[in-house]
Amino acid sequence: MVDAADSVLPCICGTGELIAVGSDIRKLSLLLLFLPFSLWILLLIILPHVGMVVLSLREKVAPRVYEFGFGNYIDFFMEPIYWNTLIRTGLMSLLVTFLALLIGFPVAYYIAKLAGNRTKGMLFMLCLIPLWVSDLIRAFGWILLLRESGIISSFLMSSGLIDTPIEFLYTDATVIMGLVYTVMLFMIVPLVSTLDGMDNAMIEAGYNLGGNGFTVLRRIIIPYAMPGIVSGCIVVFMMTAGSYLTPILMGGKNSSWFTEQIYDQFISRYNWESGAAFGFLLLAFTSVVVWLGLKLSGQTLSSTVAKS
Amino acid sequence: MTEHAFDLECIDVSRQFGSVRAVDNVSLSIPRGSFFSILGPSGCGKTTLMRMIAGFENPDHGDIRIKGKSVLKAAPNKRNVKMVFQHLALFPMMNVHDNIAYGLRCAGVPAAEITRKVQDVLERVALPDVAKRDIQQLSGGQKQRIAIARCMVLDPDVLLLDEPLGALDLKLREAMKIELKLLQHQFNTTFVYITHDQSEALVMSDQVAVMNQGRFEQVGTPQMLYQQPETAFVAGFVGDANLWHGKVESMTELGAVLRTPAGTALQARLAGSQRCRVGDEVNIYTRPEFMSVLPSGGETSNNAGTRGTAGADNVLEGRVDSVLFNGANSRLLIRTAEQALVEADVTLTGGSDDIKPGEAVKLQWSMQQTLCFPASAAQAS
Lengths: 308, 381
Hints:
By secondary structure, chain A is an all-alpha fold. Chain A has helices at residues 2-12, 16-56, 71-78, 80-114, 117-128, 135-146, 151-158, 172-196, 200-208, 213-241, 245-251, 258-268, 272-297; strands at residues 58-62, 65-68. Chain A folds into two domains: 2-56, no CATH class; 71-303, MetI-like (MetI-like fold, Orthogonal Bundle). The two termini of chain A are 23 Å apart. Mean pLDDT of chain A is 87; it is low at 1-14. Chain B is built from nine helices and 20 strands. Chain B has helices at residues 46-54, 96-106, 111-124, 140-152, 170-187, 198-204, 222-227, 232-237, 375-379; strands at residues 6-17, 20-31, 35-39, 61-66, 69-70, 81-84, 158-162, 190-195, 207-212, 215-220, 242-251, 255-259, 265-270, 281-286, 292-295, 314-324, 330-336, 341-346, 360-365, 370-374. The A-B interface holds A 199, 201-202, 204-212, 215, 219-220, 223-224, 226 and B 54, 56, 75-77, 81-83, 85-87, 89, 91-94, 102-103, 105-107, 150-151, 154.
């Protein structure tokens, strides 16, 4: 946009005065260009979060009487069930992230390096297709498969392997499986794009200089793909920790996902102040985890998420 | 340890991709410590041949031997053949030291020895202070030397180089040519160098194989390839040459007399083992430096502006179309009755007797410097 304005303007304006007008137009076009972006950031991200912080710092002292204080945060730390849930959500999200990486990496490697050009597109498409269906419908699909009277249970019954129907739903394993399935694509995409940019000669050089398959993977492919790995992990971790639908539907009331606590505070208890505090704590917690992850892997945000 | 005369041998190696024979019955033996080049146009199969030697492709048939032992069964990481890739393939996530140490670590060399060997090889490539630098901080020529050092630290039997100078700018390429040759002397390892650039091959090599359409056209020293090309392809590909097409009119003891479509009679010597009969279509080649350029009408005398005083078996009249000035290696483009421009090398001194565009000139050259090949062979190229 700016470049286009640059190339057109010299034709329109020959004299010094007009050039000044030209630079005004350039400023204006730059401003207009950034307007939707800044509105989005301001109205949808900064403003609501400022509101949340303000809200979370209000203590209810009497009906409709509030005063400034950290009471909502203190409540969180005083009540083990709250912070236990947050820790549990964090740990399970880490596990989901790890599993998604474990499954996603070979898939991404196959798509980026081993598949031919035509199969590559098709495989990518296959990864995308589940996204056409909403989260909700996909979760119900899982429920159809896994519930006590579901397909898997009745199949095992009819084949005589089990005597009584088994409830596969409402366990941690189910929640993790469902979450891995939901976030898989967001792991695969950044991995494929980094691995795609890797020169095959680098892998060949790894073998040529005497490395075996494992050394090449550990010393060359994984370090090279690190920005993609970290970027995928950040996205997947954030999505998992913040997800609501899958843990609720597949884990039931016992899933103890932290988003559920937030929902409860806002909707069931109508305690917006505490809900806001919880929301803010979740954001702070995931940010700290991501920051730790970046420190440990020696990456920066600009070398990972901003790149892919 | 048994000493084997040849570091690398290929015996009847073939490789087919679909219906294309990328490498067709190629045999070569490279003596110890020599600089061997494989020269050919892109798509001639030279890269496939190199990848087979490195183990990234398997030949359909034939054998590849390193120091006399067949390596067909050995995986790429088990062959003591190291390769400098076209774009070098240095590992960007490691610094210079780790790049060079990678191979040593794979081989399980103790840490103290790795440090010593890396420093040693860095000194040999004249870059002793770059060990801690990132790859991105190196210049093109330095990257080149690190890529070679990374291979040489492993003490390979054969070092393969796949057009490594292709990405460098002209000045650096010229410098690296000399440097590569010096490095090869210093390490005294067999280098196999792949290129499509004939000047690289001629300058650096002890032996050059000219490859075309999956086959070796000729293997020999650079001098042999240049002076006694055995096939029309070699004559046309190695060095510059003027080409005439014609029909053989008569055969003499020394060679053939042919007539071009424009009616000029030219004499040529038969190259190598080529045969031809009266009536055959042939192509003849002469290098620009063997052409003497005289002012038109002048006697056959030594003109100050021309090189060479060879016999005048062949004479052509023409007009100078343009002068490509390059000091002592200047070149004239001369339009003759054959239409095509004839190239002739001259030395331009800047004096008044220099040849200028538009002048009528007489070209003459010896039949000894004119090589004749059957036209069918040339069409294959």
